[in-house]
Amino acid sequence: MGSQLRSVLAHERVLDRPIDCIAFSSDASFYRLVPRAVVQPAGLNEIKALFVLSRARNIPLVFRAGGTSLSGQSITDGILVDIARYWRGIRVEDEGRFIRVQPGVIGQQANDALKKFGAKIGPDPASIEVARLGGILSNNASGMCCGVAKNAYHTLQSMKFMLPSGTVVDTAQPDADLRLFEREPKLYAGLLDLKERIRSNAQLTSRIRTKYRIKNTTGYSMNAFLDFDTPTQILSHLLIGAEGTLGFIAEAVLRTIPDLPLKYTGLLLFADMHAACEAISVLRAAGAAAIELMDRASLRAVENKPGMPVRPGQLPQSATGLLVEFQAGGDEEFKLNRVAATEATNMITLLHPPRFTSDASEQAHLWSLRKGLFPSIGASRARGTSVIIEDVAVPEDKLADAATHLRHLFERHGYDEAILFGHAKDGNLHFVISQGFGSPKQIAQYKAFIEDVVDVVVHRYDGSLKAEHGTGRNMAPFVETEWGPEALAIMHELKRLVDPEDLVNPGVILNKHSDAHIRDLKSLPEVEPEVDKCIECGYCEPKCPSRDLTLTPRQRIVVRRAIEELRNSVGASETLKALERDFPYMAIDTCAVDGLCAISCPVNIDTGSLIKRLRKTGHSSIAQRIAVLISHQFSLIEAAARMALGAGHLLQSLAGVRTMISITQAIDSVSRKIAREPFWKWSREMPFPRAGKMPKQIVTDPDAVYFPACINRIMGLLPGEGSEFETMEAMLRISRRAKIKLLVPHDVQGHCCGVPFSSKGFDAAHRLAVNRTIESFFKWSNGGAVPIVIDTSPCTYGLKTCRPYLTQANQDRFDQLTILDSIEFIADRVLPRLTIKKKAALVSIHPVCSLVKMGILRKLEAISKACSIETLIPEEAGCCGFAGDRGFLFPELTHSATAAEANEVKLTKCNEYVSSSKTCEIALTRATGEVYRSYLHLLEYVSRSDEDISSGEV
Question: Per residue in 346-377, is it b (16+ CB within 10 Å) or e — as a string?
Answer without folding.
Answer: eebebbeebebbeeeebbebbbebbebbbbbb
